[in-house]
Write a structure and sequence with these properties.
With 452 residues, the chain is mostly helical. The protein is 65% helix and 6% strand. The protein is built from 19 helices and seven strands. A hairpin with a 2-residue loop joins strand 2 and strand 3 (253-255).
Length: 452
């Protein structure tokens, strides 16, 4: 405990780090306050019955920190920006113009950021219309405002709210600590945790339907800690490939001649396979809503049920397939081999050129299989917890997208704090070793840090 307080003291002594942490907390406070400001013309009391969202809507509500169910000005959060970033990233693989921008360095990144912002506005406008029409009960709208005026004003405000949250994220990255967009998502997720824990504890120890008692609640907390540790292993897992650089003598100085490593992630795809698989798993429920006759089919019922074994089996298989797909389109062994050759590097025992590219590709294929299986296990744990009668809100923290984002963001932020400490010759955050964040992913455009 003494070392813990010494570390906090050291963090507070570093002025730049202290200012950055305070800035981050203030920006996040602004975001949380704004998440409780309802859209003009909405009666917040009439939205009480919509607070518990399920499925994809529940996931969006968690990412938005409850703003989605409260019809807040930040109801859409940063998800349109994340969607736009994914689209631009995929365009960089399929469209030559965007591929060229990715290779132009800082100027190219500036143009890509502009495209991302324009696309964010377009996506927000479309999602805003859908949100107002489908998620806000007409009885909650003030009779003073007509449906048309309310829709128009709300879409404009929702768009402005998303752009403001995006700006807050960029300010946190620039003047705070950690990745701003990731911290905003993490704040929205973790804001739901206290209420979920209280509800789970209440359901276990009090009330007419109390089951298990405090002992079972403690077992659930221990299981949550074990799942978090397992998730950290998956997020941090790497396969290092040794790279030797040839010696070069320029004047009186020697360059190269050192051995470095390429850290290939066991889970290079991050949370994207889960997001893609979740989107597909909502297709059966959508089809059932349009075709009532199909809804009575036993297979469709099983696929639409979050806690059915068939649903989770198909969900896990889709995650494995999407992990291979997303890793294949984001990690480019050929580009890595070419960059290595230009810098005079080679893998010991492997010939430069195509042989190096094939070697890296084989290594990626081998480590992606266990990584995808572990990712599928993490993704279905919330459903298994729900089958074990864990509260639906609390079970979401046992795995899935939310837990992977929480673990990754916390590790990245702690790594940045530790870097500031070590740069000023203070001790790190741990007695042995160092905190390691999510290693940047080698892509066709170079080394790109994870967006979420």
């Amino acid at each position: 405990m003494k070392n813990f307080f010494n570390t906090l003291s050291n963090i507070w002594k570093i002025e730049d780090l202290r200012v950055r942490i305070i800035n981050t907390l203030l920006f996040l406070l602004i975001y949380r306050v704004g998440s409780y400001v309802a859209l003009p013309g909405v009666d917040a009391n009439a939205l009480g019955s919509q607070a518990n969202k399920e499925g994809l809507l529940g996931l969006l509500n968690m990412f938005a920190g409850g703003s989605f169910s409260r019809a807040s000005i930040f109801a859409l959060g940063v998800m349109p920006y994340i969607s736009a970033s994914i689209v631009v990233q995929l365009l960089g693989i399929a469209v030559p113009y965007f591929t060229k921008l990715q290779k132009e360095g800082e100027s190219g990144r500036t143009k890509l950021n502009q495209w991302t912002r324009y696309l964010t506005i377009l996506i927000t406008l479309l999602q805003g219309v859908g949100y107002v029409r489908s998620q806000i009960n007409p009885t909650a709208i003030s009779p003073v405002m007509g449906q048309g005026l309310f829709t128009f004003s709300s879409v404009i405000i929702l768009t402005a709210g998303t752009l403001f949250v995006m700006w807050l994220g960029e300010k946190i990255t620039d003047k705070g600590i950690g990745n701003g967009i990731s911290l905003i998502i993490m704040t929205g997720i973790i804001a739901q945790l206290p209420a979920a824990i209280v509800d789970e504890f209440t359901s276990r120890v009090s009330g007419k339907n109390a089951t298990g008692g405090p002992l079972l609640f403690i077992v659930e907390i221990l299981a949550l800690v074990a799942v978090i540790m397992f998730t950290i292993l998956v997020v941090q897992g790497t396969r290092k490939i040794a790279v030797q650089y040839a010696k070069r003598i320029v004047g009186n100085k020697q360059y190269g001649g050192v051995r470095q490593y390429i850290p290939l992630k066991v889970n290079a795809a991050g949370v994207m396979p889960i997001i893609f698989a979740q989107a597909l798993m909502f297709i059966p429920a959508t089809i059932s809503s349009f075709f009532p006759n199909v809804a009575s089919n036993s297979v469709m019922i099983a696929l639409s049920s979050y806690t059915s074994w068939l649903h989770n089996l198909v969900f896990g298989i889709l995650i494995i397939l999407f992990t291979y797909f997303y890793t294949a389109i984001t990690v480019n062994p050929k580009q890595m081999s070419d960059d290595m050759k230009k810098n005079g590097g080679f893998i010991p025992g492997v010939a430069p050129g195509n042989a190096t590219s094939e070697f890296i590709d084989n290594v990626i294929s081998r480590i992606t299989l266990p990584g995808s299986i572990f990712l599928a296990i993490i993704a279905v744990i919330p459903a298994l917890a729900n089958m074990a009668h864990v509260n639906s809100q609390f079970s979401r923290f046992f795995g899935g997208t939310s837990l992977i984002i929480l673990v990754g963001v916390v590790l990245d932020t702690l790594q940045q704090i530790e870097s500031h400490l070590l740069m000023r010759h203070y001790d790190g955050l741990m007695k042995t070793g160092r905190v390691k964040g999510r290693t940047a992913v080698p892509t066709a455009a170079g080394t790109v840090p994870p967006a979420i």
